[in-house]
Amino acid sequence: MRYSAPVSSIFAVTLPFFALVLCGYLAARRGVLPESAIPGLNGYVLYFALPCMLFRFGSETPLFDLLNPVVLAVYVAAALLIVFFTIAVTMNERVGLKDAAFGALVAAFPNTGFMGVPLLVALLGSAAAGPVISSILADFFITSTLCLALAQAAGAAGAAAAGGAADAASASARQAALRALRAALGNPLPWSIALGAVFSVAGLTLPGPAAKVVEMLAASASPVALFTIGVVLWRSSQHAHTRTPVTDYLPVALIKLFVHPLLVFLLGGAALALGAPLTKFQLVVLTLAAALPSASNVSLLTERYGADSGRVARIIMSSTVLAFGSFSALAWLFGVNPA
Q1: Are 334 and 7 in contact (CB under 8 A)?
Q2: Separation CA 111–CA 315 (nearest Å)
Q3: Is residue 338 domain-resident?
């Protein structure tokens, strides 16, 4: 990693990424992009562009870097602590367990897929792909599964209290966890990572025309994904029908941008001090990944599960706006030099 970077070199990389998010938001707000086009944009990014990008990184990254057990352990431990800490400090008479669980999900689930992989690779080089991909897998299979199970259990607990069904909450939590795991397995991103890992281990390469198609789709992933984030943020704000007090959403955004990366850094530093096979470079990548804004697709989950989508939309929006400054400042403090 290169050090002693002027802050302008950090902004030279981060500004275009966040500017593309703003472009998507303004395009949707001004009606240049109709709301009916949003599912198509999401579909293109999720099923074509991002899988090709992740496949390329997976095929070019050693398997141990993709599934480093220490990297996974540090990241998962931090995510679990953030989930339970966020629930504990945000539940009140307005925010029940279901909404607190979704708030915890956006506090612990950064936008690594749509934003993190291309941004961190641009800042730190292709070696950053391994730790970031590890964090994506952890969030898909552990963080989201846990939070959805807690949210579903909260709904079942209320039904059980009304109807007297003693085991409804635990059964519903198990069902929610299974549904979340099935959804993760049905997502093309983990499969594209797995296929890339197979190619990496076996030393395989795609034939020329197929490789060119994958290259072209992968090259489109970053700009289209960032533009889509902005569009989804606008859509979420339009469908937020609740008036959420600032005290119910801004603290969660601050947990996402400051507490989450700090916790990753402290846990990773402790692992380094104990002699665990974790490099300083991997720790920097994980900490910066945790400092990314909240994953924008969580707003769609809140609508599906009947949670307070207005609150979650405001958390995501706040974290995305604030992350331009906080993420750039953290990268500068780490001495990251993308030049």
Answers
A1: no
A2: 13
A3: no
Max CA separation in the chain (angstroms): 63
Whole-angstrom distance, CA of residue 136 vs CA of residue 134: 5
Query: How many angstroms separate the CA atoms of 53 and 276, rounded?
Result: 30
Q: For residues 2 and 124, what is the distance between their CA atoms, to the nearest angstrom?
A: 8
| 60: in domain | yes
Q: What is the domain-level CATH number for residue 17?
A: 1.20.1530.20
What is the spatial distance between Cα 301 and Cα 105, in angstroms, rounded to a whole number? 10
Within a domain: 339: no
Question: How many structural domains are present in the chain?
Answer: 1
> Residue 66 falls within a domain, yes or no?
yes
| Range(s) of the domain holding residue 320 | 7-333
Closest alpha carbon to 224 in 47, 56, 30, 105:
47
CA-atom Rg of the chain in angstroms: 20
Kindly give the confidence (pLDDT) of every residue in the chain, 339 residues in length, as a single tens digit, with 9 standing for 90 and above: 544 567 889 999 999 999 999 999 999 999 999 989 989 999 999 999 999 999 999 999 998 888 999 999 999 999 999 999 999 999 998 899 999 999 999 999 999 999 999 999 999 999 999 999 999 999 989 999 899 888 887 666 555 554 555 455 566 667 766 777 777 778 899 999 999 999 999 999 999 999 999 999 999 999 999 999 999 999 887 766 567 789 999 999 999 999 999 999 999 999 999 999 999 999 999 999 999 999 988 888 888 888 888 899 999 999 999 999 999 999 999 999 885
Which residues are within 8 A (CB) of 293 and not within 5 positions of it... i.e. 6 or more apart?
A: 110, 111, 115, 256, 257, 316, 319, 320, 322, 323, 327
Contact of 283 with 273, CB cutoff 8 Å: no
Query: Which DSSP string corresponds to 162-191?
Result: HH--TTHHHHHHHHHHHHHHHHHHHSHHHH
Q: Concatenate the DSSP letters of all residues of 219-268 into one string.
A: HHHHHHHHHHHHHHHHHHHHT--S---HHHHHHHHHIIIIIHHHHHHHHH
Unique residue bearing structure tokens 């994953």: 295
CB atoms within 10 A of CB 333: 9
